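queue> pop job 88
queue> type: inverse folding (structure -> sequence)
queue> payload:
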C-alpha cells in the first residue's frame, strides 16, 4: 500500500479531473491555500483560499480554459507533510496553449487534508520547493 499522503494526493488529482468539487473539498482543509497557473490569469496572481476559493477556482477553470488536463506521473514524499507530484499539463483557452512539464507541491495538515498547494512550471522547481534533490 502506498503512503497515505501520496494516496490523498492521487485522489485530489482524480477528483479534479472529474471536476468533483464536493469530493475535492473533502480532501482540503477549510483554510487551504492554492496557487495554480490559472490564478495568474483569473485571480490577479492571488492564491485561491479556503473552500470558497477552491470552488471559485473550479469555476474559473471553465471560464479561462476550454480544456485543462493534468497528468501527474510521479509522486515524491518529502518530510512529514509534503508530497510533490510531477507530470504534464495540457490546457488551451484565453489565447494560450500549454503543453508542458509541470510540478505540484502539496502540504497536508495533521488530519491528512491539504492545507497548501502550488503549481510549478517545471519539475525541478517543484522538487526543490519540496526539499527533494532534482536529479
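queue> result:
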Amino acid at each position: 500500500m502506498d503512503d497515505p499522503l501520496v494516496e490523498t494526493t492521487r485522489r485530489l488529482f482524480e477528483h479534479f479531473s472529474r471536476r468533483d468539487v464536493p469530493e475535492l473539498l473533502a480532501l482540503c482543509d477549510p483554510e487551504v491555500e492554492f496557487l495554480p497557473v490559472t490564478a495568474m490569469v483569473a485571480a490577479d496572481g492571488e492564491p485561491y483560499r479556503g473552500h470558497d476559493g477552491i470552488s471559485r477556482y473550479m469555476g474559473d477553470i471553465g471560464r479561462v480554459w476550454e480544456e485543462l488536463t493534468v497528468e501527474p506521473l510521479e509522486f515524491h514524499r518529502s518530510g512529514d507533510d509534503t508530497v510533490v507530484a510531477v507530470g504534464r499539463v495540457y490546457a488551451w483557452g484565453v489565447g494560450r496553449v500549454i503543453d508542458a512539464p509541470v510540478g505540484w507541491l502539496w502540504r497536508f495538515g495533521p488530519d491528512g487534508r491539504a492545507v497548501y498547494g502550488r503549481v510549478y512550471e517545471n519539475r525541478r522547481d517543484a522538487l526543490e520547493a519540496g526539499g527533494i534533490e532534482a536529479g
